[in-house]
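Why should sequence recovery work at all? Because a backbone constrains its sequence more than one might expect. Tight turns favour small or flexible residues, buried strands favour hydrophobic ones, and helices have their own preferences. The token representation captures these environments compactly. In the example below, the structure is given first.
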């Protein structure tokens, strides 16, 4: 079926060429008239094609988004006293956004400081061990009394045996000795008890003081939270709670949002076959990306692919890729549409011809060329990808051929013409009468 279509196309092309060749007689007459002093040959703009290495670019629909946008929320409850930003302005991390009523939190800090000071005094008193020192002094006194009682007993005992002293005095000394021993044991027990109580009091007061230090840190932290600051740098939105409004730490509604703009992130999707093609050559995945904006302008900063999602969407058969672009001037905003342009391959030694030089003829493509004798020839060509304003030509032209870019409507195959170099962007040459 395709062969038949090609035969029909070649038939129409042949018919066209024959018709143009029939008209060539007029061209020959015109050349004769030119030689005889008639109108000059028409001027056409030509370019000499050559072989070059051409990068192949692919475009993918894309959309910008903010990867790390933050909802600003209150961490403590309170009423807003100050609102210190304008919607849409750029804020830096640490900038003050809201100030709540600070008085309750300042009072809590002062109370925590007072409790901590009291615990520190109690700890200092416990460490001085006043009661323990007193108990130890009492123990020393009873031990001294016991020594005296022992001395009295030891002095009277031989005297009584020699009947030099009364037995009642020995009995009294013995009783005093036993009483002194009991008193010493009681005093020792009291010292042990005071030592244990002191250690317990020191440990308890130390733990209490640590808890009160934590309470002071919590109160100080709550006081800091009452001044709400920007957690990141970015563009801030409108406030959702006005001055005088109540901020609730458990509220589902944020106070405002901050969107980071530098870098800006872009997501785009490629088909499964495109992804496999890119994966075969890692170069496209590492190549710099261009972002074509909605007005067809090119974003000046190049980007790069940062992430690739881990599965193909079964509904669309596409895979999402994510790229980042430096956005120092905050030109791009989240939600903008555009195209990602990436270099997928490089064609070596290919012939390029300007798109405006190519004529579409019955599903065939052709160009006019100028031979060495300045005569017009028609060439059937086969094109591949388009790169910029040019077509890649795979058949029909060779390096060095001169191709007519402007003036095709006033020439025919076999006609002799005058040539001028074609310069992209230059104004077209004025038309010259051929008859």
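From this structural description, the recovered sequence reads:
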């Amino acid at each position: 079926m395709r062969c038949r279509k090609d035969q029909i196309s070649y038939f129409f092309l042949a018919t066209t060429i024959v018709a143009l060749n029939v008209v060539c007689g007029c061209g020959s007459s015109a050349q004769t008239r030119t030689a005889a002093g008639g109108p000059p040959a028409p001027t056409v703009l030509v370019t000499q094609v050559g072989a070059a290495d051409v990068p192949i670019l692919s475009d993918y629909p894309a959309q910008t988004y903010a990867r790390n946008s933050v909802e600003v929320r209150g961490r403590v409850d309170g009423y807003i006293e100050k609102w210190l930003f304008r919607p849409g302005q750029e804020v830096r991390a640490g900038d003050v956004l809201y100030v709540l009523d600070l008085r309750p939190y300042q009072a809590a800090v002062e109370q925590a400081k007072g409790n901590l000071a009291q615990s520190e005094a109690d700890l200092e008193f416990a460490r001085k061990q006043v009661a323990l020192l007193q108990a130890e002094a009492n123990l020393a006194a009873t031990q001294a009394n016991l020594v005296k009682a022992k001395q009295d007993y030891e002095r009277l005992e031989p005297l009584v045996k020699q009947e030099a002293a009364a037995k009642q005095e020995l009995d009294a000394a013995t009783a005093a000795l036993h009483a002194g021993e009991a008193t010493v044991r009681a005093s020792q027990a009291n010292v042990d008890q005071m030592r244990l109580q002191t250690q317990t009091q020191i440990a308890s007061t130390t733990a209490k003081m640590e808890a009160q230090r934590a309470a002071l840190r919590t109160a100080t932290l709550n006081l800091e939270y009452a001044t709400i600051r920007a957690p990141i740098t970015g563009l801030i939105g409108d406030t959702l709670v006005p001055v005088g409004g109540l901020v609730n730490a458990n509220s589902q509604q944020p106070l405002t949002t901050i969107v980071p703009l530098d870098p800006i992130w872009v997501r785009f999707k490629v088909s499964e076959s495109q992804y496999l093609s890119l994966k075969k050559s890692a170069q496209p995945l590492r190549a710099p990306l261009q972002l074509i904006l909605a007005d067809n302008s090119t974003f000046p900063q190049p980007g790069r692919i940062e992430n690739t999602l881990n599965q193909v969407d079964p509904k669309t058969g596409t895979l999402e890729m994510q790229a980042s672009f430096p956005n120092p001037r905050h030109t791009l905003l989240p939600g903008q549409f555009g195209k990602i342009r990436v270099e997928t391959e490089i064609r070596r030694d290919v012939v390029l011809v300007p798109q405006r030089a190519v004529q579409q003829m019955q599903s065939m493509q052709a160009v006019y060329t100028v031979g060495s004798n300045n005569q017009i020839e028609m060439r059937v060509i086969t094109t591949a990808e388009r790169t910029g304003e040019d077509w890649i030509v795979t058949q029909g032209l060779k390096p060095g051929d001169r191709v007519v870019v402007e003036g095709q409507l006033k020439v025919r195959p076999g006609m002799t013409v005058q040539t001028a170099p074609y310069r992209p962007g230059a104004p077209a040459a004025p038309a010259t009468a051929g008859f």
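A few observations help interpret the result. Helices lie at 2-35, 103-128, 130-161, 167-225, 272-280, 283-286.
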